[in-house]
């Protein structure tokens, strides 16, 4: 099963990764990072296919996908 890791310190909550994920695999979380942004967290993790679209889309290289 694939696993997505968000490097929250780099996330600026642009939500591009949320838009691009075909599985609804990411959402805006409750916690803020040191820069004051609410950071994205994985959801529906069992549905993640490991397609890496979220990681490719992220302009801040804040997502890692492990397969
Ligand atoms: S790897 Fe693909 S399926 Fe998994 S969270 Fe990222 S975009 Fe969604
Ligand atoms: S694309 Fe990157 S910076 Fe934008 S919300 Fe997703 S993880 Fe955060």
Short description, anyone?
This protein is 15% helix and 30% strand. With 67 residues, it is α+β, with helices and mostly antiparallel strands. One iron/sulfur cluster binds next to helix 2.
* CATH architectural category: 2-Layer Sandwich
Shape: globular
Helical content class:
10-25%
Mean pLDDT equals 97
N-C termini distance: 6 Å
Order of helices and strands: EHEEHE
Using the coordinates above, name the CATH class.
Answer: Alpha Beta
Main sheet properties: 2 strands, antiparallel
How do the strands and helices of this protein lay out in sequence?
Blueprint: E1 3-6, H1 16-20, E2 26-32, E3 38-42, H2 53-57, E4 63-66
Antiparallel strand pairs: 1-4, 2-3
Overview of this structure, please?
With 67 residues, the chain is an alpha+beta fold. The protein has a single domain, classed as 2-Layer Sandwich (Alpha-Beta Plaits). Helices cover 15% and strands 30% of the residues. It contains 2 helices and 4 strands. The strands form 2 sheets. The chain has a two-stranded antiparallel sheet. The protein has a two-stranded antiparallel ribbon with strand order 2-3. The chain starts with a strand and ends with a strand. The mean pLDDT is 97. Bound molecules: iron/sulfur cluster (SF4) (2 copies).
Fill in the keyword field for this structure.
67 residues; alpha+beta; Alpha-Beta Plaits; two-stranded antiparallel ribbon; two-stranded antiparallel sheet; 4 strands; globular; binds iron/sulfur cluster
């Amino acid at each position: 099963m694939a696993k997505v890791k968000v490097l929250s310190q780099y996330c600026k909550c642009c939500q591009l990764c949320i838009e691009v994920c075909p599985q609804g695999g990411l959402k805006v979380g409750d916690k803020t990072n040191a820069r004051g942004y609410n950071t994205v967290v994985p959801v529906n993790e069992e549905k993640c296919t490991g397609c890496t679209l979220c990681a490719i889309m992220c302009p801040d290289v804040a997502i890692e996908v492990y397969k």
